[in-house]
Amino acid sequence: MEYKKWGNSEGKVGYKMNELRPKLFSVMKTYSKEQLIKDIISGIIVAIIALPLSIALALASGVTPEKGLYTAIVAGFVISFLGGSRVQIAGPTAAFATIVAGIVAKDSGMDGLIVATIMAGIILIIMGFVRFGSLIRFIPYTITTGFTTGIAVTIVIGQIKDFFGLTFQHAPVETMEKLKEVIACFSTYNWQALAIGALSLAILIFWPKINAKIPPSLIAVLVASALVAILPIQVNTIGSLYEISSSIPTPHMPAISMPLIKELLPDAFTIAILAAIESLLSCVVADSMIGDRHFSNMELIAQGAGNICSGLFGGIPATGAIARTAANIKNGGRSPIAGMVHAVVLLLVLVVLMPYAKLIPMPTIAAILFMVAYNMSEWRKFVSLVKTAPKSDSFVLILTFLLTVIFDLVVAIELGIVITVFLFMKRMADVTNVSEWVYPADSEATKKNLKKVPKNTKVFEITGPMFFAAADKLLSVTGHSSHDIIILRMRSVPAMDASALNSLTSVYHACEKTNTTLIFSHVNPQPMSVMKKAGFDKLVGKENFCANIDEALKRAEKLQNMSK
């Protein structure tokens, strides 16, 4: 996507998007050998960071370990190649873990996940082409914080079993059922698993203070795997629970039916919205770090293409990963080449080193996911919002959080958005007001400062948008039928909908019954357009539409003189 300069009425210069184009094409114009070396080094480092995370997030999503790598390889390469950001690194993220696990648990299983992922990709591409990139910011901050914190809690609950080495009697899918099972089976904990988990967690917390360049997750995996391999420790590993494949995936398209599409469509929309929010948020963070400007709509198209390819190659949903993107920037990555190198390195790891992943202890995976959950939880922001935000916003925040934990992300986002919309409409309706001009006193000062209103004339000042939630306020005007003329001053009405117009029509007919003339003052372009389309201006009479209050008062006085 390119930006062309344009001059506005004030002579200032801005930027206007004129085409969709991957950022890679723009970057290559000034690309250098020195930057290529930096991008390759950064790509290798990010791949090392992404390796344990991809495996851990795949397991948290209820799929086999290699599918996390499939996602990072395929989606990571495609999104970097087509993306609208210089430095975005894409792959599996914690935001998708719970929803993916829910889809996989359905009767359609992995095939259902593939279909949902491809559908989400198509939705993202459509969002990009219809320029929805800038509209994602309209998702309220309270909702994103609520479900992000909720996802973090669900991840923690889902990993307690492996961290403590519990033996479950059942295999629950829902978060609250998992919590019940944890409580019921906590007596079955394995102290050896707990020791490995605690050691891994300690490494993850304290290693960055020793060496910030080497990823702590990699150190935790190496140390824990070595201990399990050398010592007679009874603990579950990836190899003891899952069959690991190091083969390169081939494209696979499952059978698609209309009932399956209907069943998975809500999940697909949720995946698309999450991918859009997280990827564009990551782009914004990246822009602030490197002083660049991403192409939001191109990024959505790239995310869509990446998710389609990920689904076809047996992967899970992908999006921009903020932590991996930040690591890319800190290590010198400044072009999409770094993200593409990261994908290639992971491909080599898949082919060469994947068999050794069977040695990784499950408590270590749980510890890594604990840290992922902690970093994404934004609990400080959550607590701050609860304390400082208006009660209605705090309500939406807590509700979204609880719905995410108790039910699922689809329900949380749907209800959260619906409630937010209703609260917004209420606030707008409260702002909208219809007030009558009132003269406080008949004094000389009053006469000098206030406009003279003709006899038997009432003036009403309307403020705020006139829409369906506030339309009934217009009906209060008809309570003054004893007056010959009513002036509606609408300079502070920026917009009007059909419901408000219907109320105005009712006001006109009520005035018509009592031989009261309705005059409009300073009707703004949008409300005027609505009135003209409906023929309301002809009904009232075009002569009764005045440019300002002075003309409206003169019109009222003229009508009074004519009636004498």
What does this structure look like?
It is a single chain. The chain has 564 residues and is of the alpha/beta class. The protein folds into 2 domains: 31-378, no CATH class; 434-563, 2-Layer Sandwich (Transcription Regulator spoIIAA), CATH 3.30.750.24. The protein is built from 23 helices and 9 strands. The protein has helices at residues 23-27, 33-60, 65-82, 97-104, 109-129, 141-164, 175-184, 191-210, 216-230, 238-241, 258-290, 296-312, 322-330, 336-352, 362-377, 379-388, 391-406, 409-431, 444-449, 498-513, 525-534, 536-540, 549-563; strands at 2-7, 13-19, 90-91, 319-320, 433-436, 457-463, 485-492, 517-521, 545-546. A hairpin with a 5-residue loop joins strand 1 (2-7) and strand 2. The longest helix is centred in the middle third of the chain and has 33 residues, at 258-290. The protein is elongated.
* Average pLDDT score: 87
Largest sheet: 5 strands, mixed
Radius of gyration: 31 Å
Strand order of the largest sheet: 5-6-7-8-9
Helix content: 55-70%
Proportion of β residues?
Answer: 5-15%
Query: What number of structural domains do the residues give?
Result: 2
